[in-house]
Amino acid sequence: MKYGYFDDNNKEYVITSPKTPLPWINYLGCNEFFSLISNTCGGYSFYKDAKLLRLTRYRYNDSPLDTNGKYFYIKDGDTVWNPGWQPTKTPLDAYECRHGIGYSRFMGAKNGVTAKILAFVPMNDTCELQQLVITNDSSEEKQLSVFSYVEWCLWNADDDMKNFQRNLSIGEVEVIGSTIYHKTEYRERRNHFAVYSVNTDIDGFDTSRDDFLGAYNGPDKPDVVLNGQATNSIASGWSPIASHQINIKLAPGESRSFVFVLGYCENPQDLKFESLNVVNKAPAKALLDKYRTDADVEKAFAELNEYWDGLLSRYHLESNNDKVNRMVNIWNQYQCMVTFNMSRSASYYESGIGRGMGFRDSCQDLLGFVHLIPERARERIIDIASTQFEDGSAYHQYQPLTKKGNSDIGSGFNDDPLWLIAGTSAYVRETGDLSILNESVPYDNDESKATTLMEHLKRSFDYIVNHKGPHNLPLIGRADWNDCLNLNCFSEHPGESFQTFGPSEGPVAESVFIAGMFVKYGEEYAQLCEQLNMTDEAAYARAQVEDMVNAVMISGWDGSWFVRAYDAYGNKIGSRECEEGQIYIESNGFCSLAGIGMAEGLPRKALDSVKERLDTKYGVMILQPAYTKYHLELGEISSYPPGYKENAGIFCHNNPWVSIAETTIGRGDRAFEVYKKTCPAYIEDISEIHRTEPYVYSQMVAGADAPRHGEAKNSWLTGTAAWTFVNISQYILGLYPTHSGLSIDPCIPKDFGDFTLTRKFREGTYNIKVTNPSHVEKGVRALVVDGVTVDGTVIPYEAGKKTYNVEVVMG
User: Fold this and answer.
1) How far apart are alpha carbons 366 and 550 in whole angstroms?
2) Fewest C-beta atoms under 10 Å: which of 8, 172, 469, 655?
3) Helices (H) then strands (E): counts for the chain
4) pLDDT in the model for residue 489
């Protein structure tokens, strides 16, 4: 069942029913100010940090779904309705939500009145603009009252929902004209405040939630709106809100437009105050003066569209497959940019007060957006590396506002160091910028302990070399990519982590998955060494990689697939020897794409086993058989019911590893089959089963053991976005950046047909036409660059050259 459709020409997903299976959201904002907005106008806004600088409240885990947002109520006689349906849920005569790239549009109609909303965050200002246009489509004059509504968060979202004994006494507001100032904590901090304003005179306002809603009422039945008259309340403590009342009279066919601005403001650092509770209005005036008219909004909206059109044009596909085109050209790249901004911090599944930016997460996200914003990728790499420790390990998460490591989570995830190599390698291959490797970067953000980034990478590499277990495989530490596979748990110490044990007792659990990572990214580290003429270090790195390959061949192969790990007792995980959890996706995907045992045919055997034992119609499961009882020695993984999350769920994040691995052995049909199973455009028709947004990837889909097989969770903020774009753009379509230029080596289904690619790479634009007259899955028979035949698959890079015209014949 579908709840909308793709409008590819406008780069929008059009939702035609407000009653989607779950809230379907969009992200507004490109730089420092962000909003989440659902298809019924739910969501919230923040500046830079969703925890520490939250402007508006949102209630997670609440009923009904999607509680709190930025609402407009329209009172037409005795009828009260919302253009986005929520929160009154008054049945509408017409409804439409268009989620676009960095903006959302809403249209609702009731009793001859149509209301349209355009919501977006302008490129260079810290605010959200809401343009509301109301039209009388009836044959009679309409007298309407419009009420805006937002509920302020008291800045620290974590404290806001816990510290009631203080927070119910600190809310402060001020109203001047049509502008409502939210100045809670201004006495204390004196540097920031929020505003909500409209570009017209108002007929009333409210800033007290209790006065606006009435006792025991919810936003679905606010007293003020039902009575048709604002109370001009001034909040003093309790729960401050911002609501404007505007009374309008519309002749038949007449429209009125209003511009609302929800903004964050800061005062200059050296500003002095005569009174601590008086907000300096200059920053707000400067902001609001920029958005007084529809023309101001249209100009800002055009700038936003120009920005996104420029970004998305950097990789463009034209093929006979509309679904692949729309995902590659629009939605997959857009989601990669959102994960760049958010990491895993703020979504409808991440509250914005917990995880912050992830070390592993942000490095993987970089793989998907580095071609779009390489200069910001450079900054992100430095931020990530600055949280690393001197021994090469790292904080697993860092706080986005301060860039400091999260000491509550700490370190010990032993895959983290290698992801820094992966991200840096991707950046250097994309840009050719070797100067980043000589950039001075601190350890643990201590500038007195700074070395070059290249030294950071060496310590990342050597961390694995220096932390091996009894089988010469990498120690897993607290966990590797699978955070729930905690193999250093000991039954004699229930509930304690491995850190409570001394070196003689452990931890000794090992990860074959990290071994696969080490082989792939160890080679990429060696290539970076060669770029800096560090030939001895490159040779050392490759020797270590070869040792790791041998260790996997000896201890990591189970006969038909790669073992997943060894636990603290030396028992295999992901082996025929196990009663449950006999085969895992991670080690088989990564060891295969790394090419371990390629000459012996191991990847083909492993991938055949993955298809036979892990595949479902909705994607490849993470393991089988599912764990049916709790295993303390495995940690959190078996705490989930069978079929969910790490216990035999379908992790969309690592399905691309299997698809990429299939391309390395030339099986384009199978690679594309795996790609399609989790691709939103291909599963739009089963939205009643899948439930999450049909235009972006989710982290997880319930596996075959789950009661709701095929149901997704955790959409938007997932490494699935980056890894899927890497898979489709670099391996299936085959356009892979190397240090010496772009390589073009597609691996596609036999019936995929011819296609063209436009790719911005360094200074050049590459216009590439691929033909496949023999309908092969892989193989380049001819590569012609600007009329000259080139041997191999790499298009030679020429510094300063602006245009490359490339013809590729597969065969």
Assistant:
1) 30
2) 8
3) 21, 42
4) 72
556 token code pair? 């990591």
- Tell me which amino acid residue 512 is: V
> Could you tell me the fold of the domain covering 4-309?
Beta-galactosidase; Chain A, domain 5 (2.70.98)
CA 618 – CA 604 distance, rounded (Å): 22
DSSP string, 159-226: HHTT-HHHHTTT-BEEEETTEEEE-TTHHHH-SEEEEEEESS--SEEEEEHHHHH-TT--TTS-HHHH
Strand partners, 796: 741
Average pLDDT, rounded, for the chain = 95
Categorize the per-residue pLDDT at 317 as very low, low, confident or very high, splitting at 50, 70 and 90: very high
- Measured CA to CA, the distance from residue 732 to residue 757 in angstroms comes to 13
Is residue 418 within 8 A of residue 518, CB to CB? The reply is: yes
Q: Decide if 4-309 and 735-810 have a common fold.
A: no
pLDDT band for 672, please (50, 70, 90 cuts): very high
Which residue carries 């007259």 as its tokens?
Answer: 773
Classify the phi-psi angles of 543: left when phi > 0, otherwise alpha if psi is within -120 to 50, otherwise beta: alpha
Specify whether the CB–CB gap between 34 and 346 falls below 8 A: yes
Distance, in Å, from the CA atom of 655 to the CA atom of 527, rounded to the nearest integer, reads 27
Beta-sheet pairing, 803-810 with 764-771: parallel
Decide if 395 contacts 442 (C-beta within 8 A).
no
pLDDT tens digits, 54-113: 999 999 998 999 999 999 999 999 999 999 999 999 999 999 999 999 999 999 999 999
Phi/psi-derived region of residue 398, left when phi > 0, alpha when psi is between -120 and 50, beta in every other case: beta
Q: Report the chain's C-alpha Rg in angstroms.
A: 28
Architecture of domain 735-810: Sandwich (2.60)
Domain ranges in the chain are 4-309, 343-453, 468-614+624-648, 735-810
DSSP-assigned letters across all residues of 101-143: SSEEEEEEEETTEEEEEEEE--TTSSEEEEEEEEEE-SSS-EE
How far is CA 809 from its chain centroid?
A: 36
Integer Cα distance of 258 and 293 in angstroms: 8
CB of 340 within 8 A of CB of 365? Answer: yes
In CATH, what class is 468-614+624-648?
A: mainly alpha
Q: Up-side HSE of residue 647: CA atoms within 13 Å toward CB?
A: 20
- The contacts found for 601-605 with CB under 8 angstroms, 24 or more apart, are 602/553, 602/557, 602/562, 603/661, 603/664, 603/665, 604/665, 605/560, 605/561
Q: State yes or no: pLDDT of 272 exceeds 50.
A: no
Q: Which residues are catalytic?
A: 483
Do the beta carbons of residue 233 and residue 207 sit within 8 Å? Answer: yes
